[in-house]
Specification:
It comes from Salimicrobium halophilum. By secondary structure, this protein is an alpha/beta fold. It has 9 helices and 5 strands, in the order βαβαααβαβαααβα. Strands 2-3-1-4-5 form a 5-stranded parallel β-sheet, with helices on both faces. The structure holds shikimate-3-phosphate. Shikimate-3-phosphate binds next to loops.
Amino acid sequence: MMEQPIALIGFMGVGKTTVGSLLSEKLSRPFIDVDKEIERHHGMKIRDMFATYGESMFREEEKKFITHYAKQEGTILSLGGGAFLQEDIKTICMEECLVLFLDISWENWRERLDELMEDRPVLRNKTVEEIRELFEERKSLYQAHHKKFMTDGWSEEEVADHIIESLQLK
Ligand code: S3P
C-alpha cells in the first residue's frame, strides 16, 4: 500500500519534532526532522548557520531538503516553523504530503519562550511584543494545511494518538 508522506507544520516549539517522532514510532514509518538533517549535513547548528552565512543560505538548504523528503513514500516530516515562508515549499508539501498543522494559543506558547530562545535565531533580539507579532503573522502561513490539530492542554503523546485516531492511520 502506498503511504503518503505526512508533513507537520506550525510555530517554533509547538512540538512538531516530538509529535513527529512519536508518530514514526507508533506507525513504524521513517521520521525526518528537516532542521536536524540540515544541521547534520553541514556539521553545524542552525543558529551558527544564520550567524555565519545568513538566513538566506539556511532557507535555500531548507528548500532543497524538503523538496527531496516530501516525495519519500511513508515519511513523517517535521518542518521548521518558517518553511512555508517559501511558496515553493508550500506548494510541494501541499501536493505531495498530508500537511498537518499543529496549533497552539499564544498564552500556552508564551510559557515555552524562555527555553526556546537559545536555539532559535529568529526569536533572538526581539521583545515579547515583537515575538507576539511574529506569532500572529505566521498564522497566515499555516492556513495552507489539510488538517489542523489544536495542542492546548494535550501532551505530545496525546496529540500523536489523536492524529492517528482521527486520520485512521492504523
Ligand atoms: C525557524 C524555525 C526553526 C528553524 C529555524 C527558523 C522559523 O524550526 O527552522 O530556526 O523561521 O520559524 P522549529 O520550528 O523546529 O523551531
